[in-house]
Design goal:
about 45% helix, six-stranded parallel β-sheet, disordered C terminus, elongated, alpha/beta, single chain
């Protein structure tokens, strides 16, 4: 029998929670309810009461329930739910996590769900799923499924009953699925890519896969996909990363659409696994839609309308980065790379960082790319011995560039394997000596 952890606030959604629980149990699920309520109430039905949730979050519920604001009291309640979810997951005691509510509850529930790993079922029924200001925050960076309720989940009426019944069916179906445990000894390799790196990415993927011992998992570097990639690396799901497109960093710095946050690269470089990087994507700012050019703050601040532009369509527009921006990016990129805790190689194609900036490309500006190379070279002085930089007299689309990346990847993995073998041998020797 699959078990579902249900997050809900019984003080405001007690009747609805009971209806959902009954439907889940009818569908063959065991339900554990964690009560997120922040006000005292006398409703029953919680396996983890709001008092216990607060205690597990390091707070006294009697104090929480007397406070008027929600900012200061949300954190301990959320922490308590996180501790419950993590503990149950680590014990293998739950098969899915679910919750429902409006904007506040959805943000709370999704924050709890983010601590659980990729692949574990996470479902939310939300009346605010389509709010532009919040939507991405609900599920970005994690595989959270959001079911848009279209109406307020307040009170039991025929529409709410219908929604909760269908939501129960979704939860029960996902929870009952036995995830395939494939016997696969291959090492897992993450690779970031986008359309302007496709030729190189395809060659690298194919060559790595042909070795037989690696499974290559691609992530779309549009700001969210590459962020998810890094969080999965931090969760220990990958043995290496070929980060062809780290431009989520430059987009964050400059205000582009593919913004992955100013902490982009931090998790992978701190992980200790082999990391391969290129400057692909640093040569452009994603700034669509094209209609934004009329008075938009980004376009106005950076004078994008006066630059070389590649207009794929109304929604997708790429503007050439300037020399000063490239120097700024190079400095930030070097600062991060120098902190690498594992074998890290940076491959720089001197004749074009992406399909946009190769000779004949719409954003071809070799002098601007050269400004990046010069600045990066300067700021990389004093890098630790784990880091290597290779400047190559070719473009990212030349076969020799992909071949160099693959060979560098092969060498890094072999070196890691040799170190692991030496460590095991050393420990075995120490054991023998002790005996």
């Amino acid at each position: 029998m699959p078990t579902v952890l249900l997050l809900t606030a019984l003080d405001t959604r007690g009747e609805e929670a009971a209806f959902l629980r009954n439907n889940l149990e009818t569908l063959g699920c065991k339900v554990l309810v964690a009560d997120m309520s922040m006000r005292a109430h006398d409703r029953e039905g919680a396996d983890y009461t709001c008092v216990e949730v607060a205690r597990l979050g390091g707070a006294d519920f009697s104090v929480i329930s007397q406070q008027k604001g929600t900012a200061s009291i949300t954190e301990p309640m959320m922490k308590g739910c996180i501790n419950i979810a993590k503990s149950l997951h680590e014990k293998g005691a739950i098969n899915a996590i679910a919750g429902f509510g409006g904007a506040t509850n959805t943000l709370f529930i999704s924050s709890v769900m983010r601590v659980l790993p990729f692949g574990f079922p996470k479902l939310i029924l939300s009346s605010s799923a389509a709010m532009p200001a919040y939507a991405a925050r609900y599920f970005a960076h994690k595989d959270i499924t959001v079911f848009h309720a279209c109406l307020d989940l307040n009170g039991i009426n025929r529409f709410v009953k219908d929604l909760l019944q269908r939501f129960a069916g979704l939860i029960a179906g996902v929870a009952a699925v036995q995830r395939a445990q494939e016997a696969d000894a291959r090492k897992q390799v993450a690779i970031s890519e986008f359309g302007f790196s496709e030729i190189c990415a395809q060659r690298v993927r194919s060559a790595c896969a042909s070795m037989g011992e690696y499974e290559v998992i691609p992530f779309h570097a549009q700001g969210v996909g590459d962020r998810i990639m890094e969080e999965m690396i931090a969760d220990g799901m990958f043995d290496a990363v070929i980060d062809l497109v780290p431009a989520g960093l430059s987009e964050a710095m400059l205000g582009g659409n593919r913004d992955a946050g100013l902490d982009r690269l931090d998790l992978e470089l701190e992980s200790g696994i082999p990391v391969i990087l290129t400057p692909c994507g640093f040569d452009a700012i994603s700034c669509g839609p094209y209609s934004r050019r009329h008075g938009d703050p980004l376009w106005k601040k950076r004078h994008l309308a006066k630059r070389k532009l590649y207009v794929q369509d109304e929604m997708r527009v790429q503007a050439r980065t300037s020399k000063s921006e490239m120097e700024q990016i190079a400095r930030a990129f070097a600062k991060k790379v120098k902190k690498a805790k594992g074998p890290t190689s940076v491959y720089v194609p001197l004749k074009g960082f992406s399909a946009l900036s190769v000779e004949g490309g719409p954003l071809f500006e070799p002098e601007t790319d050269a400004a990046f190379v010069k600045a990066f070279r300067r700021h990389m002085k004093g890098a630790n011995s784990l880091v290597e930089v290779f400047e190559m007299d070719c473009s990212i689309e030349d076969p020799i560039f992909a071949e160099a990346i693959v060979e560098g990847f092969r060498s890094a993995m072999a070196e890691v394997g040799e170190r692991a073998y030496a460590t095991v041998a050393k420990r075995a020797g120490a054991t023998e000596t002790a005996r």
